[in-house]
Amino acid sequence: MIKTPYRDRTPGGFALPRYVALAESIQRDIESGRFSVGKPLPAERELARTFDVAHLTIRHALSLLAKKGMISRQHGRGTFVQSASATAVIGILIGPNLLDEPTYFYRALVQTIRKEVGDHRWNCRLYDDLTARQTMGLSGNSLNLIQDIRHHAFKGLIWIGIPPGTMTDEIAQSDLPNVAFGSTVQEAAVNLDLHSFTFNAASCLAQQGRRRLVYLRTYWQKSRGAPDVDGLLDAAAAHRFQMTRESICPVEGFSPQGGIFAEKLGYEQMLKLMKRWDAARAWPDGLIVPDDVLMRGVAAAL
Predict the structure, then answer these.
(1) What is the C-alpha R_g of the chain?
(2) Which of 34, 143, 152, 210 is packed most tightly, with the most Cβ within 10 A?
């Protein structure tokens, strides 16, 4: 077998991990037709000898190609080149209805995920409004998802903003690889970096001379010593201002899928706080709000 030379640096001159460079080289061989669709690749040990690399390096390279949908690894048979039609399909499952005006955060998130999926040469199918319930049972999108899981070759599912217990057992207990994002998902694998958010927000205000800060803390961040509180405390230590019990105001009843109700809640919460600050004659000079829709209600009250 003749090996294709592989580049070991990016166009910007940065060094590539060797397994990434190998994966790119093998991918070019597949795209050029040197490795035919449906045919097995040479054994891992043969590839390791050809490229003069460790067996483990080849294994990492092939794993990367499998994730891209370029090859399939069949236990006991070997590694085979996938056809273009066998490219991985990723299901994106969204709790809220993306047509609702307040869900622009979710729309932006889906746009970013679609780009990332496309960069990996994968396809994706989108299902939103999955938390909706019809009078006769599941919503149309939920039924479509069940049918598609039965008949499409999904490679994985991405759950976004779906409360536990919402989906049917057929979806929830699927053996497909999945990753969950969102504060309402139990044991979410991906979450917002709340420490960085509060640290950067408080630091920005402190650099503008603000020292009496108030943070409206939404309901899913309840645990003591949570990242968002740690971020505030770290910023206070770094910029030498004080955080007190009055600095953190929980927003009870908040849901990130609440839409207009979240805006109303922010408005009502702000009115209560303003009365308290008036009575104490002690207004803050900086306010941190972790949700965009909630912030609209806060801004209206102010």
Answers:
(1) 25
(2) 210
Query: Token match 């938390």: residue?
Result: 131
C-beta neighbour count of 7 within 10 angstroms: 10
Q: Record the pTM.
A: 0.57
More confident site: 36 or 272:
272
Question: If you average pLDDT over every residue of the chain, what do you get?
Answer: 79
User: 287 near 216, Cβ under 8 Å?
Assistant: yes
CA distances from 100 to 134, 138, 142 (A): 17, 19, 18
- pLDDT 10s digits, 265-297: 899 999 999 999 999 999 999 999 988 888 989
Tokens of 60: 């990492």
> Cα–Cα distance between 93 and 149 in angstroms, integer?
12
Cβ-count burial 92-105 (b if 16+ within 10 Å, e if not): bbbbbbeeeebbee
How far apart are alpha carbons 10 and 202 in whole angstroms? 37
Residue whose pair of structure tokens reads 């070991």 in the numeric block: 8
Residue 93: both structure tokens together = 């499952």
Q: Is 222 helix (H, G, I), strand (E, B) or coil?
A: coil
Q: Enter the DSSP assignment of 86.
A: G
Q: Is the pLDDT of residue 206 over 70?
A: yes
pLDDT at 222 over 70: no
The tokens 């149309």 sit on which residue? 140
Dihedral pair phi/psi, residue 263, rounded to 5°: -65, -45
Do residues 168 and 146 make contact, with C-beta atoms less than 8 angstroms apart? yes
